Predict the structure.
Amino acid sequence: MRIALMVLRKLYIVPFLFYKICVAAKHYDGDYMPGFLLAKKIAKHAIEAGNITLEVHGEENIPKEDGFIFYPNHQGLFDTLTFFSSCPKPFACVIKKEASKVILLKQVVEATGSLAIDREDIRQSMKVINQVAEEVKGGRNYLIFAEGHRSKEGNKLQEFKGGSFKAAQKAKCPIVPCALINSFVPFDEKSIRQVTVKLIYMKPLYYEEYASMKTGEIAEEVKRRIEETIRQYE
């Protein structure tokens, strides 16, 4: 119902934006800034039309230098809209293979040089992780959902997968934990009532802080910090 509301309220601009993101996807040349700016515009229109208030905290914690990875909890398709709408720094995403086939999301993935991962295929997963690490070393920013699949228990987190942090470990880059609160509500509820979604950018973990940790330990620490932040802001 909310997606229909978004489309109806922005019907005057939806075809134009979809055309633009399709063109950006088709002509992607390695520069993810044009696709990111289009995705930001789409996200802002969607949030405005969807009767949603996005409350953002901690923007000052986003590293000033590029070459970092966001690690948020995962609640659903609306999650990426919160980041595109609010983040001042361009980034690409690592998303599951199935989601990369969803219309519009598919075009955004292609336009931003984002990567689809098949968690059932270990070889393909490692190839994506290695590619992310190399690109982050080169100054690209990424967003990775360490839970793999979205939580179906509201603001309660699932296990964070240690393998998701191999990219950061290989790149020796800042890890930026991010807490999403009620991001599941807009697309899970069969309602168009006003809803507030919160996104908190948390203080980064720099390589010096996690260099001696195993990936499973990093995952647990990031999860712990996010859970603590959710309790603080709920």
The two ends are 25 Å apart (CA to CA). Strands lie at 52-57, 69-72, 92-96, 115-117, 142-144, 175-181, 195-201. The mean pLDDT is 95.
